Amino acid sequence: MQNVKEYIAQHKDRFLQELIELLKIPSISADSAFSQDVLDTAEAVKKALEKAGCDLVEIHETDGYPIVYGEKILNTNLPTVLVYGHYDVQPPDPMDLWNSPPFEPVIKKTELHPEGAIFARGACDDKGQMYMHVKALEFMVKTDQLPCNVKFMIEGEEEVGSNNLSTYVSQNKEKLKNDIILISDTGMIANDVPSITTGLRGLSYVEVEVTGPNRDLHSGLYGGAVANPINILAKMIASLHDGNNHITIPGFYDKVQELSDEERAEMAKAPFSLEVYQKALDIDSVYGEKGYTTNERNSIRPTLDVNGIWGGYIGEGAKTVIASKAYAKISMRLVPNQDWREITELFKRHFESIAPKGVKVKVKPHHGGQGYVTPIDTDGYQAASKAYETTFGKKPIPQRSGGSIPIVSLFEKELDSKTILMGFGLDSDAIHSPNEHFGVWNYLKGIETIPYFYEYFTEMKKSS
């Protein structure tokens, strides 16, 4: 790949400004109030792919938000890379914790990003990382260095479960046919410690509702005499873990794959400072399942967490009330072999069974997906490893992630393709949180590294 650094240096300001303009659009798929913004973002992605050099770009309607498809086909005898990404973003709440408005991107220097970081919702997850691929294509096309075919599939529902993606994929297998799938929606260990994600956890997401009396009650007249749904919900949630932070749902661990001592020893070789980890989160101790390290707890072990809980009066001042209803949203991160539908049913059955008399319980499943482990002996992984080694000057470390990208297992099932997860973000980039950001260095490094993947993968496929 000749002159990639030179090309990036020449177009750096434009690359940043284009991303900033994309980040200004509040494409929040979870909130229907922003539906037009999500649609506008799809149009913006379409135009960006056209300008980058795709010969065909289409917006495909679904029962939800559209999927943007693009392609640059040089020769059907050449290998084909399918790039997946998403243009929707998480809600920015809580707004008062942002240091700058979430959809008014600003570049600020930080301790980890001395060259600056772009602060905005979606900066890292996933607009910034998705847009690296668009600019990498631009470089390869403009300099006549694209070595193979490329297809893009950019969706607008990843943050709400990719509900319509499976239908689209199953109905467009020939259009999406490829030799490897490339995704940048993960991270790496550090800017000086590159890594490739080789495993993802699955996900089961549910909402629970506890109902007590038929109306809100005066806490003086009724307190102590009827079940308080908020109190009951808190007790029920607390019972989902035991004293060792082991999940108490019967059957939950039946299919959990235990890693060997040798595999755990290999994981432990990854650089990790507990002191730095705690300092970054401003905590004085870590917390989790007994018998496992921090890096094991957040990658190879399943979890259950409350993502939101509400009920009763939460306004200013006091209101002495026993609420009629209480709610919570709960996510379970799953490891390979755990089926998300089965886990959802186990949760529902258990949660309903532990409800005391005096309340009624409803469990509403939202979405989920399977976990995924990718082998490291494939052409795809080796090409990615060589690409990182070329631009970072060191071999990347294979690493399992605690996050979930449910569609990865779908791709393997429907398209019979392996996925390579080339992430350039950092754990400290605050994705899904206030003050999300993405390092300028990381953004440009991704644009620099991705073209080498194309080059090395094409070489390997031709020689195999």
TrEMBL record:
InterPro entries from the UniProt entry: Bact_exopeptidase_dim_dom (IPR036264), Cyt/Met_Dipeptidase (IPR051458), Peptidase_M20 (IPR002933), Peptidase_M20_dimer (IPR011650)
Pfam families tied to this protein: M20_dimer, Peptidase_M20
Keyword Metal-binding: yes
Domain Peptidase M20 dimerisation: 199-358
TM helices/strands, residue ranges: none
Keywords: Hydrolase, Metal-binding, Protease
Biological processes per GO annotation: proteolysis
Molecular-function GO term, any one: peptidase activity
Gene3D superfamilies attached to this UniProt entry: 3.30.70.360, Zn peptidases (3.40.630.10)
Nucleus keyword on record: no
PANTHER family xrefs: BETA-ALA-HIS DIPEPTIDASE, SUCCINYL-DIAMINOPIMELATE DESUCCINYLASE
Name of the protein described by the UniProt record: Dipeptidase
Organism in which the protein naturally occurs: Maribacter flavus
